[in-house]
Specification:
Length: 475
C-alpha cells in the first residue's frame, strides 16, 4: 500500500493516515496473580473470622487475588514483534506474577503473547505474537527531526476503549519532567493521552513512530493536554537489543545529583539552571575514584554541556562503560577538570539497596542548651542551633567525633521549615566551611551577606540518612 503523506500545513483530515496505521496498533492486557498479605480482616484469629471477607486466608495466611492491566502497543515487524511500555506488562509489586499476556488487534483477534524482553529503566518491553501470514507493521522514525509545532497523531487504548485516535502537536522536545534518571527526556504533546494509552505509538505525518506514549501530567487523573512520549531515538536501539537478546549496558558514575535551582545558584554565586549539583558520591564508585566530591557542580561531561535538556545522567548513561571522559566542575568557586572512567550501571535492585534509607526515627535527644547569642542566626535563617556534643551525638546515632551544630528549633515561617529541616538535624557545614560553633556559623552568614548573596548552602545530616546539601534563603 502506498504511504499516505498529507500536504504541508494543517491537514484537512487524518483519516487516510489513520486507516493505514491503525491495523498495526494493538491493545495489550495482562492477567496476573497478586499475593496479598494477611492482616486485612479485623476479626482474624477470632470466632468471627470466617463471617467477613478479607484478604487473609485460613489461619491468617496470605492469599492471592487476580489483577489485570491494560495498555497499548504497536507491531514493528511482519513476524509479530510488538513494542510497549514495561509497566504495561510488569507484575504488580514484588508479590505479583504474570500468568498471561494477550494482544488484541483492531479486527478483534486475540493472540497469546510471549514476553521477549524488558528494560525497566527506559520503561520499554518487547512481545512476540504469531500467525501464519505476515502482520501489518509500522516503522520507527527519526525523532531528532521533530520540531515544536509539528503535527502528530496518537493511537491507543485509553480506558480500555480500543482503537482511539487523538491528534495534536509537539509541545516541547527533550522535556525533562523532574523525575530524574537517565531517560527523563521526552517529547511533549497536547494530544489527548490517558490511562491505557501507555505503550502506544506517536506518529509523525509520514506515518513513522517518533515516540512511545508513556506518561501524562495531570492533577485530575485525566488528560489536561500535557502528555509525554519516549523519543524513538532512545527507544529503537533498546528495542533492537531486546529482540537480539543482548544485555543493555549503560554508563554509571555513582553520584546523587540535583538540578541547580535558583536558591542553590544564589548560595553558590553561580548562574541558575546550568550544571547539576552533586549531593553525594557512592563510595568506591567511578566518581569517587576520579575525585568527585559532594558539593561539586558538574557543568560539562565528555565535552557536552550539562543542561536541563541534556542531563548528567543522560550523557553518562549513553556512554559505553570503560570509556574515559573529562568532567568539568565548579568546586569552591573554581573551575576544575578531572577524568573519570565510566563504570557499568548496576541493576535497579542494587541501586535501590545502595540508596535505601532506614525508616526515619524521632531525634531522641533531650532538650539541648542553646548557649550563646541565637538572635542573629535565628533572624537570618530561622534556626536555633547548639554545638554537637559527644552525648548528643550518641543520642542521634552519629559518631562522637562528628563536628557540627544541632538544630534545636525551626521557625515555621522560615525557608528552613519550607525545605524540611527539623529539630535533631545536624548542620555540618555552611558554604563548604565546617561549623562547630555558633560563632562560626554566624561568621559564614556575615560573609555571605557581604558578598550580597541571597542564600546560604548548608550541609545537613539527618539520623540514619546520608548528609545532603540544602540551600536556604536568608531573611
Amino acid at each position: 500500500m502506498a504511504r499516505v503523506v498529507p500536504r504541508g500545513g494543517a491537514p484537512a483530515s487524518f483519516a487516510d493516515l489513520t486507516e493505514q496505521l491503525q491495523p498495526a496498533v494493538v491493545n495489550i492486557s495482562t492477567r496476573q496473580r497478586v499475593q496479598v498479605q494477611a492482616g486485612g480482616n479485623p476479626f482474624a484469629g477470632t470466632p468471627f473470622e470466617g463471617l467477613f471477607g478479607g484478604p487473609s486466608g485460613p489461619g491468617g495466611q496470605p492469599t492471592t487475588r487476580e489483577a489485570q492491566s491494560l495498555g497499548s502497543g504497536f507491531i514493528m515487524s511482519a513476524d509479530g514483534y510488538v513494542v510497549t511500555n514495561n509497566h504495561v506488562v510488569a507484575a504488580q509489586g514484588r508479590n505479583g506474577t504474570i500468568e498471561a499476556i494477550t494482544v488484541t488487534t483492531t479486527d478483534g483477534t486475540e493472540y497469546e503473547a510471549e514476553l521477549v524482553g524488558t528494560d525497566a529503566q527506559s520503561d520499554l518491553a518487547v512481545l512476540k505474537i504469531k500467525r501464519s501470514k505476515p502482520f501489518p507493521f509500522v516503522n520507527f522514525g527519526d525523532s531528532r527531526q521533530a520540531r515544536v509545532g509539528d503535527w502528530i497523531i496518537a493511537i491507543g487504548n485509553p480506558f480500555g476503549l480500543g482503537g482511539t485516535v487523538t491528534s495534536g502537536i509537539i509541545s516541547a522536545v527533550y522535556r525533562a519532567t523532574g523525575g530524574g534518571g537517565a531517560y527523563d527526556r521526552y517529547l511533549q504533546t497536547d494530544a489527548a493521552i490517558n490511562r491505557g494509552n501507555s505503550g502506544g505509538p506517536m506518529f509523525d505525518m509520514q506515518g513513522n513512530v517518533i515516540g512511545i506514549n508513556n506518561a501524562i501530567f495531570s492533577p485530575t487523573g485525566g488528560s489536561v493536554g500535557i502528555g509525554f512520549a519516549i523519543p524513538a531515538e532512545t527507544a529503537e536501539p533498546i528495542v533492537r537489543k531486546l529482540i537480539a537478546g543482548e544485555r543493555i549496558e549503560r554508563g554509571y558514575l555513582g553520584v546523587q545529583i540535583q538540578p541547580v535551582s535558583e536558591d542553590l545558584a544564589a548560595s553558590l554565586g553561580i548562574p541558575h539552571n546550568r550544571g547539576e549539583f552533586v549531593q553525594s558520591v557512592v563510595p568506591d564508585g567511578a566518581a569517587a575514584k576520579a575525585g568527585l566530591r559532594a558539593g561539586d557542580v558538574v557543568v560539562k561531561v565528555a565535552g557536552k554541556d550539562v543542561t536541563p535538556e541534556q542531563t548528567l545522567s543522560y550523557i553518562v548513561a549513553n556512554t559505553a562503560p570503560g570509556t574515559r571522559i573529562p568532567v568539568e566542575l565548579i568546586r569552591n568557586g573554581k573551575r576544575v577538570t578531572i577524568n573519570a572512567t565510566v563504570a557499568a550501571r548496576p541493576s535497579e535492585d542494587e541501586l535501590t539497596q545502595s540508596y535505601a534509607n532506614p525508616e526515619e526515627e524521632q531525634d531522641g535527644f533531650a532538650n539541648p542548651r542553646t548557649d550563646g547569642d541565637q538572635s542573629y542566626v535565628a533572624e537570618k535563617l530561622g534556626l536555633s542551633v547548639t554545638p554537637l556534643t559527644a552525648t548528643i551525638a550518641r543520642q542521634l546515632g552519629v559518631s562522637e567525633d562528628t563536628k557540627g551544630l544541632v538544630i534545636a528549633a525551626v521557625d515555621a515561617s522560615s525557608d528552613a521549615a519550607g525545605k524540611g529541616l527539623r529539630r535533631g538535624d545536624i548542620v555540618l557545614s555552611a558554604n563548604y566551611r565546617e561549623v562547630a560553633t555558633l560563632a562560626e556559623l554566624e561568621a559564614v552568614i556575615r560573609s555571605v551577606q557581604a558578598e550580597k548573596r541571597e542564600a546560604i548552602l548548608l550541609r545537613v545530616q539527618r539520623r540514619g540518612q546520608p548528609a545532603i546539601y540544602v540551600p536556604l534563603r536568608m531573611r
